[in-house]
Each structure stands twice: as structure tokens, then as C-alpha cells.
């Protein structure tokens, strides 16, 4: 929230979504957010695809969404227990589709133009640093997606 406040004045378009941990979005809310945005940011625990239904996502057509940023793969004891309980009901190939590369491919197939995603487990603090770098480079410096990813890689 601090980062959003810091860069609020640089936002040219309206931002909407769910902030905080008061409630998890329903599948209908995920769909509405993804289909009505030009950019989508997920900053959360575990794998992004563990929060949405695979069958629902692959049936979507979201070409208006030009950029998806997935700052996920953060693990806590509570989130790990949730994911373990969720994965019990899934097949190995289904779980494999939730990995970062496969998630990026699925989003690309739905029409998303670019995907920026973490590739391994990280901490909330490290993802906060990544978000700060993304916003600084996109909004303050006006860098392209490729230039910003290059900065993140350093």
C-alpha cells in the first residue's frame, strides 16, 4: 500500500482491484478484473494459478490486457498449508500447469501481451523491492517493459 501511495500521482488510468487479505476474490471477480484491464498486477502468496480455476482461465479471451505482473511465489506457514490441502485434489500434470513458465504460456494463449513473473519462491520484502523497481521504471522513468525487466535482472 505504501508503494501504491508513493506512485499514485503518476497513475494515468484508474486502478481497481482487491487490496489486503480481508477476502479472497471470487472467480467472477478475477474474471472481471482480468477482462477489464490493460494491465494486471498480482502481489500475493503462493502460485497465482492456485487462486484461479484453470478451466475458467483457459476459456477466457483477454486481449485488452497488455501486461500481467505476477509477484507471487511467497510462502508462509499458513499459505503452505492451504496449498498442500488444495494440491491433494489435483493431478501432477494439473499442478505442473501452475508453474511460472506454464502460467505465462497460458496467459499468453488467452491474449495477454506480456507477462512478468517471478520464477522461484521469494519473500514479501523481495517482491516489494521488485514492485518498487517496476513502478519506478515504468512510471517515473517511462521505461519499456523490456528495459524494466532488464533492470530487474540486475
TrEMBL record:
BP GO terms, sorted: axoneme assembly; cilium movement involved in cell motility
InterPro entries in the cross-refs: CFAP46
Leader peptide range in chain numbering: none
Protein name in UniProt: CFA46 protein
Organism listed in the record: Bombycilla garrulus
